């Protein structure tokens, strides 16, 4: 069942008539703006030249959602107030222009639409449900901190993106990636049979299919890096605590982080710059991570020569020839590109205890999650102004009562039930956390220090567990497509606070390769400035 606001979106076009747009605005001989694949810099340049309005941009993305979402199912709701927010952004821009003030002061995200994963709270007409009917109609007390910062910057909150319901945590291993009760099964825009991955699948799919410029996702264990990798977009998982989690439905607070998903590294960095920083509502984590934020922000590290002098480690025992055999030749080609761009490749490295690190049942992660989820989600639910459920026990009961809505018979909720049986963080959970810390110290930290590495590099998603259990940052960049057309990326990971190095490396790699291509959706049309005006 689709939850798009029909009054906002207008008539939903049938899936059989799905179009992929390639519209342009032609505002003169020297100006040409193409909506699909438009970057934030291109959008802001068009704004500055008075050739594009935020309202027109919002209209385009809403039309894209109308046309593509019946097939891709990556958007749960469109914000009924999106057009009004766009009008306000356009008015602010006009006022600045009349006052001869610098439009740059409005910021990179001013007037730019952003989709939010449906776990990020908004105090507006949108729901925040984790993809479940159990939280439909619940009322949050205030915006999540990252949303407050978006609004303060003049960004347009376009709507809520789908996800793997409850971060897949309702029934680990049984809920298909990209599926939730409210939205149904989301689809990879490159390969209908391809895994969209999870849980920030809707955020990644929507960006990949040009249904929005940028989006926000969240990650506990791979939920930004994996869908970005599988849908040929950039996913940036920040150091835990660099971005506030206040107002975001939790999984395991010691590992949860909020990060950008975009089509380019620069767009991800612009969004990251906006949402990082100390937050008293998430005091412990953000106060610790705030020391990593560089003066002047992160955009200064968008350096085309960023690979020069970098030492990149290839940890071969994180992946093997069987699970990456189809992309290994491309990976080896990219390693040569990294070398030619000035990086030193330290190859054939190994992290100790990889089999343990990569298994949540052995590395302590699942033990910590089962207890941490119950405690943290109960706290989140209790803080809601109103809600149909107030505890994990209530959610389980709701699902059992509404099994048809939630497909309980098909996918179950065994992980929820196991979590409900826990009794908080006791000795067993503390030992689980200590094990993850030890595995991280003896693993990636020892490897990087001994080999004087700036980052590690892996094909696909094979560093997710290593980065996840230690709260480390990572960024994945589109790196190619296999013989079936399924995307894959190159993932760069580092130690806490190494975002500047990761940005330099990822941006330089992106600019040297420019691998990403649009999804092969069926038909294209052109919109001119005239018929865009007529649609407003």
Give the structure's gist in a few sentences:
InterPro entries: Amidase_dom, AS_sf. This protein is of the alpha/beta class and 536 residues long.
Protein architecture, described:
With 536 residues, the protein is of the alpha/beta class. It has a domain at 21-300 and 517-527: Alpha-Beta Complex (Amidase signature (AS) enzymes). 38% of the residues lie in helices and 13% in strands. A hairpin with a 5-residue loop joins β14 (474-481) and β15. It is globular and about 65 Å long.
**How many individual helices?**
20
The gross shape turns out to be: globular
Count all strands and give the number: 15
Percentage beta strand: 5-15%
Q: In which order are the strands of the major sheet placed?
A: 3-5-4-8-10-9-14-15-13-11-12
Assigned CATH class of the domain at 21-300 and 517-527:
Alpha Beta
Termini separation: 28 Å
The CATH superfamily of the domain at 21-300 and 517-527 turns out to be Amidase signature (AS) domain
The CATH topology of the domain at 21-300 and 517-527 is given as Amidase signature (AS) enzymes
């Amino acid at each position: 069942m689709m939850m798009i606001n029909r009054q906002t979106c207008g008539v939903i076009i049938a899936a059989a008539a799905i179009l992929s747009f390639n519209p342009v605005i032609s505002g003169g001989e020297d100006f040409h703006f193409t909506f699909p694949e438009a970057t934030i810099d291109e959008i802001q340049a068009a704004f500055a030249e008075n050739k594009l309005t935020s309202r027109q941009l919002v209209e385009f993305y809403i039309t894209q959602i109308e046309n593509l979402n019946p097939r891709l199912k990556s958007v749960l709701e469109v914000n009924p107030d999106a057009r009004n927010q766009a009008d306000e952004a356009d008015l602010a821009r006009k006022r600045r222009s009349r006052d001869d003030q610098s439009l740059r002061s409005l910021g990179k995200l001013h007037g730019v639409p952003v989709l939010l994963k449906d776990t990020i709270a908004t105090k507006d007409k949108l729901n925040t449900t984790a993809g479940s009917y159990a939280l439909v109609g619940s009322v949050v007390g205030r915006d999540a901190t990252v949303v407050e910062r978006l609004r303060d910057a003049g960004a347009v909150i376009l709507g809520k993106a789908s996800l793997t319901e409850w971060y897949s945590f309702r029934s680990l291993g049984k809920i298909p990636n990209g599926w939730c009760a409210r939205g149904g099964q989301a689809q990879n825009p490159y390969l209908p049979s391809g895994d969209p991955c999870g849980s920030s699948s809707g955020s990644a799919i929507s960006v990949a299919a040009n249904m929005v410029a940028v989006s926000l996702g969240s990650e506990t264990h791979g939920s930004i890096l994996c869908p970005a990798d599988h849908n040929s977009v950039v996913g940036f998982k920040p150091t835990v605590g660099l971005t506030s989690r206040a107002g975001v439905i939790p999984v395991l607070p010691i590992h949860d982080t909020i990060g950008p998903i975009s089509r380019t590294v620069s767009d991800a960095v612009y969004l990251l710059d906006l949402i990082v920083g100390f937050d008293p509502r998430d005091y412990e984590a953000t106060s610790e991570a705030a020391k990593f934020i560089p003066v002047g922000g992160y955009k200064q590290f968008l350096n085309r020569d960023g690979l020069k002098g970098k030492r990149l480690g290839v940890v071969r025992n994180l992946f093997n020839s069987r699970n990456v055999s189809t992309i290994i030749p491309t990976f080896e080609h990219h390693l040569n590109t990294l070398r030619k761009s000035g990086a030193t490749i330290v190859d054939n490295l190994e992290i100790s205890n990889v089999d343990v690190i990569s298994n949540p049942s052995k590395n302590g992660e699942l033990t910590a999650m089962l207890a941490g989820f119950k405690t943290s989600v109960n706290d989140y639910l209790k803080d809601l102004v109103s809600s149909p459920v107030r505890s994990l026990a209530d959610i389980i009961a709701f699902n059992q009562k509404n099994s048809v809505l939630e497909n309980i018979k098909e996918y179950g909720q065994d992980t929820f039930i196991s979590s409900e049986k826990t009794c908080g963080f006791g000795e067993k959970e503390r030992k689980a956390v200590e094990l993850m810390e030890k595995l991280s110290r003896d693993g990636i930290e020892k490897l990087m220090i001994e080999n004087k590495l700036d980052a590690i590099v892996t094909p696909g998603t094979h560093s997710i567990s290593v980065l996840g259990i230690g709260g480390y940052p990572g960024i994945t960049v589109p790196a190619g497509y296999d013989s079936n057309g399924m995307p894959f990326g190159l993932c760069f990971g580092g130690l806490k606070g190494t975002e500047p190095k990761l940005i330099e490396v990822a941006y330089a790699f992106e600019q040297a390769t420019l691998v990403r291509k649009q999804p092969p959706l069926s038909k294209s049309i052109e919109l001119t400035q005239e018929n865009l005006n007529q649609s407003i």
